Structures are given as structure tokens and as C-alpha cells.
Amino acid sequence: MIRRMSNKISITASVTKQTSEREDEPPDDPPDIGLSEGGDESPEKLFCENLVRIGSPEYSTQDYRKFFRKRFYPHVTHREWKDWKWQVRNRIRSLKSAARCFVLTQAEQRALTEYGLSLPFAVTPYYASLVHPSDPDHPLRRCVIPLPQEFLRSPGESEDPLSEDKQSTVSGIVHRYPDRVLFLATGFCATYCRYCTRSRMVGHSAIGHFGKSYLDGAIEYIEKNPGIRDVLVSGGDPLTLSDDILDWILSRLRRIRHVEIIRIGTKVPVVLPQRITASLARLLRKYHPLWMSIHFTHPDEITPEVAEACERLTDAGIPLGSQTVLLKGINDSVETMRSLVHGLLRIRVRPYYLYQCDPIIGSSHFRTTVTRGLEIISGLRGHTTGYAVPTYVVDAPGGGGKIPLLPDYVKARDGDDLVVVNYEGREFRYPGAFRE
Ligand code: SF4
């Protein structure tokens, strides 16, 4: 294993030259306003001795969230808390601010001291209120608080496992499939996931929201290529862009005659549901057909705020799908995944993809086996609503695209008959399946 050091890529190299053009970039280091000094009581005492029994019948997650706000943001009004720009300005971004909200292990402290070498660190106050303050194994905590394992490189890992840089035709465009492109519209995210496939390009200090000439270049490429019928706007997280910039991007794309559909890939409804305002929903609905893929990880993310955000989007006519990365110890069980997909259907989000975790550098502690992934699909298919079952895929390292992985339901071919097994393992025969 070797130490992880470099984060340079070609897409961002051209962007860093445009720092003077960057628009709407959030401040580098938000002030700690609103965080209580905490009096004499140590967080450990408060969290461990008295208050937090998340999961126990008498103490709910909602109770803890109320406590969290009162304890750490006592002077922040309801209006401020619900303001997405306030949430972004006040993200937890340092060891000091993290240590005020969470009882950090030594390993977490060490990783937070060194994180500047690799993945960025930022958590919205909203998402921090969902994170267990003292349990380092809490699934949401593992998604956002770094560990030293991130700095290790294991065999087969790479900074750009999907070869997006090689398939980047101009800055900000990855053109892998003939009829569609990935448009990396920003390098900024509200909260950074520790297993991010694009950690090489998101959140680094020289890169925030990109400048106009970068966006122009990407859109001009789409204009000049009539074979592109589908544009996935992603990043970073495009919903961290201001309404004005989003409106400008989407209106430019919608004016291109050969672009049939626009898709947005985002985690904002999950980590920053305050961003899904009525005016954003009105803006997005102008650009139909527009679809949205939301990055959900765990059922604990489905809060009343997230349900409201998704309702606003679906009521604006936007079909919502979820994309989930399979993560060891976080969501790699049938029970957790069932709870997640059922929760998603309740808020009108269709589970779309379950990804085998990409071999990004420092992700070995997140990766689980394909056998486990197939067991999860077997545990869902037939046991629950078909809409609830995502397609399990491996995104082929080297840029081969998404390849579906399925449990073995086909047992044999017997003459012209197909022998198959159902979800209970019972065998059936379909006659004449191969007869013309
Ligand atoms: S929201 Fe997406 S792009 Fe941003 S850190 Fe998470 S996985 Fe990466």
C-alpha cells in the first residue's frame, strides 16, 4: 500500500486557470457563527452520559435533531436554518468545528488533520444533525467523516477508475456513449462523500463553481454534436449552483434541438433539502423533459425535510430515481437495503441503480464483495415490489460503462426449453424458449 498524495486531473487543470472567472463561489472558510461554546460540559459528557440513545424507544432521531440544533446553533433562527445558503456558508469543514459536534475517535482526528492531502471535508449542519455524535460506526457518519484508510492505496485502485479524463473531449464533458454526455457543471458539493468517484476533481480549494468560458465551451461542444440526445448535468453537485446560473445552463441546453432529455445528478435533496425551494422547482419545470437521479445511501437519510423536497420535485413533474453506492458496513445488508428502497418508494423515488463501489484510491474499507451485492438483489427481487429493485451494476474500470450484475436465475437450456429458478429457489421450465 502506498500513501495517497496527488489529486490532479486534466478536466480540472483547465478549470483552475479560470479562477478569476468563478461565479457564486461560497466562502472558503465559513465563520463558526451560531456554534455554541458549549459551557463546561464536554460533548462527550453530554452525548454519552445523558442524551443520546438513538434507536431506543424513548429517544428518537427527531429528538436528537432538536437537541443538536438547540445545543450547537442556539442563536440561529428557523428561517436561517431553512436557508440553503446559510447551510452552505456554515458547513462543518475543520477538525475544530467537527470536534464540537461529534466525539471524534483518534483515527478520525488524525484523518481530519491530514485530509487536506486527499478528499475535501465538508458537512452541512443539517446533515450533521443526522449523524450519530459518538458512534464511529454509524452509517451516515462513515459516509462523511474521514478515516486514515482513505490515505492508503490498494491494488487496482486509481484516481480516475472510470477513465473519465481519457473520455473527456473538452473541459467539463465526458463523452463515453455515442448518444449522451456527462456534463461536469461544477466541482462543488454541499457535503463530501468519503467514497466519491470524482474526489480527484471535487471540492479542492482552487476549484469551486466553474467560470462562464468553461461552461460555454462544454455547451458549445454539445451544440456541435448532433448525435447527443441526452445530457446528464452532474459534477460536483449542480444543484449547489445559483438559480440564475442553473437557469442559464438549462436554457442553453434546452435551445439545442437535438438534446431530447436533460438529466440532473445530485445529492442535494439528501444533504441540503433546503435547496429545493418552490422557486427552484418552478425553474426546473420550465425545461422538461427533465429527469433527476438522487444519490441516496441509507434509510436514515429519509427525513421529513427530504420527503418534502422530493414531493416538491415530483409535483413539478420531475421523475426521480435514486442511485446508491453499495458500501461495506453501511448499507450492505438485505434489511438495510429493503428499508431504503421501501422508504424511497414512499417518497416517490424509484430505486434506479445500485453501484458496486468504484475502486477509487483509499476506498478499500468501503468496498464489499460482488457476492454480497448479488445476495442483496436476490433478497429483494420477488420478495418486494418490482419498482423497489434497483439494477445492480459495476461501472467497468477503464471506461467500459455500466454492466448489470444479476443473480443466476437461468439454470440451464434443455433442448428448446429454458430451465429457470424463481425467487424461492424453485425450478420452472419455459417450453420452446429457443424455438424460432
Ligand atoms: S455528492 Fe456526488 S460528487 Fe459530491 S462528493 Fe458526494 S459522490 Fe462526490
From TrEMBL:
Residues 1-43 are annotated as: Disordered. InterPro entries: Aldolase_TIM, LAM_C_dom, Lys_aminomutase/Glu_NH3_mut, Lysine_aminomutase, rSAM, rSAM_sf. The keyword Phosphoprotein does not apply. It catalyses: L-lysine = (3S)-3,6-diaminohexanoate. Residues 22-31 have a biased composition (Acidic residues). [4Fe-4S] cluster binds at residues 189, 193, 196. The modification N6-(pyridoxal phosphate)lysine is found at residue 402. Its EC number is 5.4.3.2. Its cofactor is pyridoxal 5'-phosphate; [4Fe-4S] cluster. Keywords: 4Fe-4S, Iron, Iron-sulfur, Isomerase, Metal-binding, Pyridoxal phosphate, S-adenosyl-L-methionine. Residues 7-18 have a biased composition (Polar residues). Residues 174-388 form the Radical SAM core domain. GO terms for molecular function: 4 iron, 4 sulfur cluster binding; L-lysine 2,3-aminomutase activity; metal ion binding. Belongs to the radical SAM superfamily. KamA family. This is L-lysine 2,3-aminomutase.
